[in-house]
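S.,

As promised, the 2'-monophosphoadenosine-5'-diphosphate run. Input:
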Amino acid sequence: MICLTLSGNTLASCLDEIKQNRAYIDAAELRLDLLQEEEQQKASSFPSMTDVPVILTLRRKEDGGQCMLSEKERRQLLLSALDGDFAYVDIEEDVKRNDVEQKAREKGVRIIRSFHDFSGIPDDIYSRIYRLSERGDIAKAAVTPHTIQDLLTLFRIAEELKDVPKIIIGMGDWGIPIRILYKKAGSLLTFACSGEAVAPGQVSAKDLKMLYRADQVNERTGIYGIIGNPVLHTSSPLIHNMGFHAINYNAIYLPFLVDNVRIFFALAEYLKMRGFSVTIPFKDAVLMYLGNISREVKQIGACNTVVRMPGMWKGLNTDYYGFLQPILKDIDSGRVRSALVVGAGGASQAVVWALRNRGVKVTILNRTVGRAEKLAKINLCEYDTLDNASKYEGKVDLVVQTTSVGLYPDFDISPIDFHFTGREIAYDIIYKPRMTKFLKEAEKAGCTLHYGSEMLMDQGKLQFELFTGYHYPKEALQNL
Ligand code: ATR
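Predicted complex:
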């Protein structure tokens, strides 16, 4: 089940939240502690106002809630709310058997026995979950992974407790994969928010249902993803999941925040992942774990696509292909014979290689000239410092911006001071924002522009083919 955590402070606003999210959810959690005091008193009427099963929760401050009542008052409030037809009630692990539990059992309300750890994963998590489930209740552990190793540990614990009715929540950004793959973890439900997250790392109900189709995941679902740090801002989940939906392919693609590539490979084995995308800063770091690499990866020295092959992982590069597609005609027609590439970092490697591979004369400009020199030597091209940019005005057909300068949120800066003549093609590989300062300058001069979003889409399309064996469906493009 996808369960919406209601964040309203009145019953009416909570109902509204359910209405807005009704198409995406199977249950809702009424957080009594977030309601105004007079509304709390009327909570028993809530379940009959909606058609979804409702969990009753009155979360204490120390467990991440707002309730400051004494335990006695808290029990009273829960008892009176239980007059209503709640499907579940959340009772914390340390609360002794009491009248709330008794009333719930009498009424056939299922008990969720919960514990929270906002600092990490407790060493005794396994035995605690097991113990909580012993009386036939649903055990709920909301804990905080801080590393990819922690996330792997959570998945392993979930597997060991396969037959135990439970909910395992990974709070914060590191826990997002186990929130999305809740069915793989054997959790009864996952908690979602309607917009703003109520708890750290929550994913919206709409994304869980429509983007990830988290409730459709089954034994046969192929798992794909993207690794990076940071990674949660990327558009790749949108591109790939929309593609899967359009061709009815049973697969899911999700973001993995990673701090250690070696351990991620262990997680990928554990989840039987079929492939994943690689973004900054791991495009080099993955190389040593690959059993097979393509010619492009070998020559570029960076890998952005990893696919499973029998007994090994294979690394490929679709960045160079994605970069080339929008300007391929111009290169083939001879319109682009020379290029200035601004930047000599990771992103520049694939760009320079792609251009050189097509016979374009390239000059690399970089703030740190040593890096430009190194990349230029590998790819047999020229190099210079950024300060000399004006030397190349009017002398090149294409200017490519590959640095991180101008990236959201610092979008009003450009790495070079360059006067375009208007004849150049200007290409910025930054896709957020679409229109960078660099491109604005080029537009003013009347240049043809190419955007990072074009490269992103084209590299994603080829990646989709490598992942699935199918062309990227046209129908999916309309939804992007
Ligand atoms: P990525 O993998 O995103 O390319 P990177 O390898 O750190 O990241 O490279 C970033 C690129 O942006 C480099 O070319 C870097 O120039 P330096 O090699 O001199 O560091 C460039 N860059 C970053 N900040 C810059 C700035 N403020 N001005 C000019 N260039 C900058």
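The chain has three domains: 2-220, 228-320+458-479, 327-457. The chain is about 35% helix and 20% strand.

- D.
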